[in-house]
Amino acid sequence: ARNSPITRLLLTTMSHRMRNTEAAVRKAERLSSLGKLASGLAAELSTPAAESLSAVRNLPQALDLSHALALNVSNRGLSSAQLQALNALQRRMIATEPPSLTPAQRAERERLLNGWLDQHGCPDLKPSVPEFVAVGVECAAMDEVLAQVGADALSTVLRWLDATIHVVSLTRSLIGCSSRISDLIKSVKAYTYMDQSPTQEVDIHEGLENTLIMLRHRLAEVQIAREYDRVLPRVIVFGSEINQVWTHLIDNAIDATNACGLLNLRTWREDDWIVVEVADNGCGISKDVQERIFTPYFTTKDVKGRRAGLGLDTVRRIVVERHRGMVRFSSIPGDTRFQVYLPLRTG
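^ thats the sequence. predicted structure below, dont judge the formating
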């Protein structure tokens, strides 16, 4: 009988098991998403970390060489006025911001400097030409050095300047890599709202941009278009949860375009709602499954268990249940749009 003790016990046990299974699957999905973000972050950190380590290892040797060559220059019998002029030139080279050059401009400057070194009997300095060009040294600066020290001391002085520039390049590399690592850490803290209360008054655009940084390892060949309404007011949300929404939607868009299409992010205000649209030009969602895409465990991706089919269900729960918002979408091949409506009023 339906109301017998055994039936009630069986139903209760099955209900508990289903809840436990769903909780376990959701936990696995969160861990999977966390693992993907951690993998991407590791990839983003590996390059500046490796470059920093290389610069640190090379810097002591470069400093020793620079000091030794400075002694060689001082032993060339140059006058006090010549040494002061060289020091001024060195400081100017160090202080100058590296130019932003196209590959064609860089190649042309290297060609001219190589020709200058051949013409003035310093072909052994050609390996240093790319570094000279990188810090903005042109033939005019070489002419200035020649005018100050003469042909006899030219090679010695250029070697000293080359060593100095190399030290500066290593130092700039350390600064640049440290800044990149620091920016990534700031983005992670902003993305997770680490050490902050569960709800925050946030700028939606900052959350979108931090999410893009977290997914940058997947965006190398994706064209990103932004149509942000920069006058949108801030909105009170569960910050780390709403960033999960952007992560799932953007990640799905990347998958839909095979990581080489167009991702378009739009924001606007519609009455008392802030609307965020994540669109892509990928394969689209077929009409026969569109009614089921927010169903738990439903997935259209043949990825051998990588996804549990909870991404869009998570989006729905966070937006609709946690924030009393709405999720809408439309999809045809080449144009899929997910729109998240977040209320401005939270009373």
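The beta strands are 199-202, 223-227, 235-238, 262-270, 273-280, 326-332, 335-343.
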